[in-house]
Amino acid sequence: MTEGGVPPAQPLLDVRDLRVEFRTRDGVAKAVNGVSYTVAAGQTLAVLGESGSGKSVTAQAVMGILDSPPGFVTGGQILFRGRDLLTLGREERRRIRGAQLAMIFQDALSALNPVLSVGTQLGEMFRVHTGASRKDARARAVALMERVGIPAARQRVGDYPHQFSGGMRQRIMIAMALALEPALIIADEPTTALDVTVQAQVMDLLAELRREYRMGLILITHDLGVVADVADTIAVMYAGRVVETAPVHQLYKAPAHPYTRGLLESVPRLGPKDRPLYAIKGLPPSLTAIPPGCTFHPRCPLARDLCRTDRPPLYEAGPERTSACHFWKETLDGAR
Amino acid sequence: MGRYVIRRLLQMIPVFIGSTFLIFLMVYALGDPVAAMFGERAPDPATAAQIRHDLYLDQPLWKQYPHYMGQIFQGNFGIAFNGRPVTELMAAAFPVTLRLTLIAVVIEMVVGIALGVFSGLRRGRSIDTTVLVLTLIVVSVPTFVSGYLLQFVFGVKLEWAAPTVAFETPLNEMLLPGLVLALVSLAYVTRLTRTSIAENARADYIRTAVAKGLPRRRVITRHLLRNSLIPVVTFIGTDIGALMGGAIVTERIFNIHGVGFQLYQGILRQNSPTVVGFVTILVLVFLIANLLVDLLYAVLDPRIRYA
Amino acid sequence: MPEPHVPKEAIGHGDGGTAALAIGEAESLERAHAAGPPPPGGAPTGRPRSLWSDAWHDLRRNPVFVLSALVIVFLVVIALWPQLIATGNPYRADLAKAQQGAAPGHPFGYDLQGRDVYTRVVYGARASITVGTCATAGAALLGSLLGGLAGFFGGWWDALLSRLADIFFGIPVLLGGLVFLSVVTSTTVWPVVGFIVLLGWPQVARIARGSVVTAKQNDYVQAARALGAGNGRMLLRHIAPNAVAPVIVVATIALGTYIALEATLSYLGAGLKPPTVSWGIDISAASTHIRNAPHMLLWPAGALSLTVLAFIMLGDAVRDALDPKLR
After folding, report:
1. C10 part of a folded domain
2. Which of these, A323, A170, A313, lies nearest to A235 by C-alpha position?
3. How would you list the strands of the sheet with A83-84, edge to edge?
4. Where are the beta strands (DSSP E) in A156-253?
5. Are C121 and C161 within one domain?
6. Among residues of chain B, what percentage have pLDDT more than 90?
7. Which residues in A lie closer than 8 A to residue C31 (C-beta atoms)?
8. Domain limits at C23?
9. Is C76 in the same domain as C153?
10. C-alpha span between C51 and C327 (Å, rounded)
11. How far is A6 from chain C (nearest CA, A)?
């Protein structure tokens, strides 16, 4: 089994060997195959991966909002403040959702209810979790909107999501996640749907609020640029597994997995014009037919016979670093 | 909003004129109303000509129509087949059909939405499939068949309901006809609700509502139902006009003297004022119901903004 | 015109389920959703298939489709050659046997005039199938032609057509039918077919117009226009194929409801007229005797309902297979 490096203190969130599959007419898609990662209180973990790598599905399983059926958690543990969420009853889990564990979605336009005013949707958090009065809930909704920087919040509290710009809508999503000052926020590609200029503002806001409220943050993204500024550690996912975890600067300096290296090299950088952009050859595997051995071997420039037969465990690749590559050392050295 | 209402009202005018003119044309083709008045006896030519002149029938069609409409807007719908003013006939017939329609709408709304929500939340399970198949069957049985069947089973065999409705149309006797009238629409409301619920249940904002830690009950009532019922409500709204026009079959089966019954008499006796008058009112009801539905839509869905 | 979306397709069905088709249902969508997260990248799933071969692939495996198609084939054969399964004469009356129940050789009994109900039920298929197919073909052709042109050329044409469609929507179907058809003395099916086409085309036109407007905005159509493709070529090559599937779906479901409409009109005395053998007429005649001789009503009513059900189920299956939202 793949056990990540267990940090000394009890982490805020400790996902252990999580497995999720989708049972569909066309077969079983194994979306998450033994993911482990941890987030300490006040820390930011960036989960990096292509679409279909299982990063969002893992987050949904943590939140307890998997579409089920067809999605099922088939194994593992999700320890949140030491308690395994998977063993809790439905009602207990609901109480944690939103209050201690909140989520920010990618596309705020579709994630907000189109026919309810934003004030109603924000106030609902207080109405449901703290039993606030209608009036009180509205006042706190206005305060939240002001906190996330929405101008004229008092006038706009009765407006509907479609009446806000994309950036403002995402701020409302953030406000909603923030409402009850949860211990951990999961942000699933929070800026992907936004204009580049707005992206930075929203990211900054998120980072600022995280510091202010000392929350843990899981930032799910496929954008390496976003990660570098805000994350403490990075978990890289591929085909439903974590293939590498590392403190952010170490990972950028020297990746310990060929897939991570491929990702880093495929990002355009300022520099000599003649350096060709690197592209990882091939496509990620189908989740209904995951290759034996290392899942990355069909696309890996370093692949050898061992990679085709033996699935690599998460090797300790240094202090606070892991890599699921048989040849992590080679990769690490090659990068230096 | 105000401008939108005015624009819609203006748009209704050509449709109203077109529909009523079409009916006017058809009725005109029905035959000579004067000859029909006299039945078997041939009228005295001079008298017939006088009546024709009085009724504006000696004018060309394009003059008759505006004259007739002008009369209608002064509340003069002409004389019905029984020698009384058409308005008197309407005053007797429309409340009856309206009652029948309202009963049908209530049944269709309560049962249809309940069944639709029930099966929509259990999408793909066997109970859902059963509801789907049943609604298809209900849609496939024409009202005049289901009407006689229910009349036979509940009215004749089981004697739970009166097989025909008394002249005073008491509420308890109208329930069975109301159900018959509602059946096909009920099946559509069920299917529409079910589809809408099933589709919206997968929507991102429902996922958000769950992630907010709302209780399941609140997710369904506040978030899922509110959104899913928008198309259903609009369907039911437009259905009111259709049901009133379609009530003729039900009225015939249960011997209810409503709009359909009187109109049928009017057609049999080639009495054009009755026919045109009744149909004109029905077209108006239909158009106004449609307008109200459009406005209701804006209230229910804030995304709709009227230019 | 930025008008609110109202499910107009769903209106205008009163009794007899005339034109209540295709209320934007999309139950088939769930199959797409149920697939969970998309497989990463383009997972190899065999050779690519077109909309049509894909639909056909789905349909052949759908028991609802197979069953309803078999029923329909049977009905069509019976409509063409009723003698195949009914050797008797639908008009031969034996008043002495009027209203009698089942007897050897006469499984469904006798009707009011002592005619064999079984033979009449078999012969009744012809009128229903003829009216259904002809009216559907007429409404589909007229509707897609007018709707397609309105959608393609837009502007003035479009506005005119939309109002015209509204006018026909505004007429109560059964009452309009009573008025219109009571003038007619012909005993053929054609006046009924004509009336149904007259009130049925706007519905097809709306669907066709909608899909043409959508297709027109597709990038590849814009590209073709930019490359200088003419109107005719644009319509035939790029736009028409997009409108065909929705029109077929609407038309198939409409077929069933048109058959029900014909029977309802005949029941009211305004549809087909004797000597045409029609289920609607026979049900109407039997209706007053339901207490003492229910068999006279139940058999033709059952045949009628089964026929309508078969077409509606076929349409349902075809819609599931062709729904463009699925692909």
Report:
1. no
2. A323
3. A27-39, A13-24, A71-80, A83-84
4. 184-188, 216-221, 233-238, 241-247
5. yes
6. 18
7. 25
8. 16-48
9. yes
10. 8
11. 30
